[in-house]
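Field reference: sequence -> structure
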Amino acid sequence: MRKTFSLAFVVVLSLVLLTACGGSGQTVETSPDNLPDAQAGKTLYENFCLSCHGPAGKGDGPAAASLQPKPSDLSALQQTSEDNYLFSGIAQGKDGTAMTAWKNILSETQIWQIVAYLRTLE
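Structure field:
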């Protein structure tokens, strides 16, 4: 009985920790039916990201002048970064910058949509 309780406790605790840490693995499915919607990502980007990162993702949005350090050039970053890195940066934010964590505001699907949109920037 004690072993069963201990095992159940470990399983429940693990699930709680995984949920708290966003334990979805943060991977994107690549089947055609599950591809993130870049057009929806553009709308989200315009609503949540443009003020700092600018319309083309260059880090030159209207709020950028007042930020130190300056926002990242996402058009360049997306060319050298994996999808999971971009997802994590949006979800977790970036210490020492004005980049806030969006994981409690946007859903995982919405964050993936923004990542898909970032891939369209030049």
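Note: The mean pLDDT is 82.
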